[in-house]
């Protein structure tokens, strides 16, 4: 479904990513880990079409990505941004409106009632039913984040891009949201790319785990080399791969220490 071939990304003279190649089948839940600053968000922005690779190519279902993100492409980026002038419920109703209708076309009559029912069902699942008529500014950070995740899920895109979506959530709610995401992934057969700093979470959710790391270093030209995919682990069998957690943990943390020194 997604094909990334020999992608390189540089900003000015700084190489962020290099030699990134990846084939991802539809229905894969791809979790992405790597040290801070190694280019994970940049990679997601390229999948979205918000950034162009410096060289190499990204194809979605056999076609090169359009130069701008479009709703038809069916990719939603997790921006944690909700519409401030709409209530919690209307934020979700509007998200549903994007589906199969021109942007901002509002539904009427029975279709609108169905959209509201779907929004309320989602609000129940994310624990925001009591806050349906509030505005985003009246929510806590974690509540806003849940609303943003729900909004992305309501759009039901074939490819969902999530950049550390659970960062601001406390542990109990985080587990609930992970379970919700897994349910939606199964139910709607989504293809997901999700960046996380939490390695147990990457193992719990993913069917494939990707590690980005910088392998080449030149002390004279610290900007000459970028990060690449250093580990690509299928996690079909959660028990068999449990032992690999420590290895991935080390890969990511060793690099963090390098950076700090
Ligand atoms: N628009 C930009 N212009 C110049 N440099 C950029 C730009 N966007 C990102 N970078 C640089 O690219 C590198 C990778 O950034 P990116 O945000 O992709 O990292 P990351 O892996 O997502 O990090 P984190 O885990 O902290 O979110 C960083 O060194 C960053 O400073
Ligand atoms: Mg990032």
Description:
By secondary structure, the chain is of the alpha/beta class. The chain folds into 2 domains: 2-74 and 158-260, Rossmann fold; 83-156, no CATH class. Helices cover 36% and strands 24% of the residues. It contains 8 helices and 10 strands. It has helices at 40-48, 88-97, 109-125, 141-154, 171-188, 199-205, 238-241, 245-260; strands at 2-11, 14-24, 29-34, 55-60, 63-64, 75-77, 159-163, 191-195, 208-214, 227-234. It has a 6-stranded mixed β-sheet, with helices on both faces. It has a 4-stranded antiparallel β-sheet with strand order 2-1-4-5, covered by helices on one side. Helix 2 (88-97) packs across helix 3 and helix 2 packs parallel to helix 4 (141-154). It is globular. The structure holds adenosine-5'-triphosphate (ATP) and magnesium ion (MG). Residues 40-41, 163 line the site of magnesium ion.
Question: What is the helix content?
Answer: 25-40%
Task: Summarize the main sheet.
Answer: 6 strands, mixed
Mean pLDDT: 84
Order of helices and strands: EEEHEEEHHHEHEHEEHH
CATH evolutionary superfamily of the largest domain: P-loop containing nucleotide triphosphate hydrolases
Counting DSSP H or I runs of 4 or more residues, the number of helices is 8
Number of strands: 10
By CATH, the topology of the largest domain is Rossmann fold
What is the strand arrangement across the widest sheet?
A: 6-7-8-3-9-10
Q: Any idea how many domains?
A: 2
Low-confidence stretches: 100-104
**Strand percentage:** 15-25%
SSE class: alpha/beta
């Amino acid at each position: 479904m997604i094909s990334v071939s020999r992608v390189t990304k540089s900003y000015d003279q700084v190489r962020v990513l290099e030699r990134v190649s990846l084939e991802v089948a539809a229905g894969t839940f791809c979790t992405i880990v790597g040290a801070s600053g190694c280019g994970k968000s940049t990679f997601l922005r390229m999948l979205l079409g918000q950034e162009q690779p410096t060289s190499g190519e990204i194809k979605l279902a056999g076609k090169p990505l359009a130069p701008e993100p479009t709703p038809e492409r069916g990719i939603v980026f997790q921006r944690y941004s909700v519409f401030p002038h709409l209530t919690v419920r209307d934020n979700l109703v509007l998200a549903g409106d994007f589906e199969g209708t021109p942007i901002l076309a509002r539904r009427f009559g029975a279709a609108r009632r169905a959209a509201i029912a779907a929004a309320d069902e989602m609000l129940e699942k994310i624990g925001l039913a009591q806050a349906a008529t509030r505005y985003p500014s009246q929510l806590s950070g974690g509540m806003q984040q849940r609303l943003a995740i729900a909004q992305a899920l309501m759009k039901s895109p074939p490819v969902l891009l999530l950049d550390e979506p659970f960062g601001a959530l406390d542990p109990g709610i985080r587990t609930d949201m992970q379970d919700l995401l897994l349910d939606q992934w199964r139910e709607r057969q989504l293809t997901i790319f999700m960046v996380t700093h939490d390695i147990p979470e990457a193992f719990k959710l993913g069917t494939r785990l990707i590690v980005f790391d910088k392998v080449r270093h030149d002390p004279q030209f610290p900007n000459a080399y970028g990060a690449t995919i250093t580990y690509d682990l299928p996690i079909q069998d959660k028990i068999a791969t449990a032992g690999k957690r420590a290895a991935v943990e080390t890969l990511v943390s060793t690099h963090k220490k390098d950076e700090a020194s």
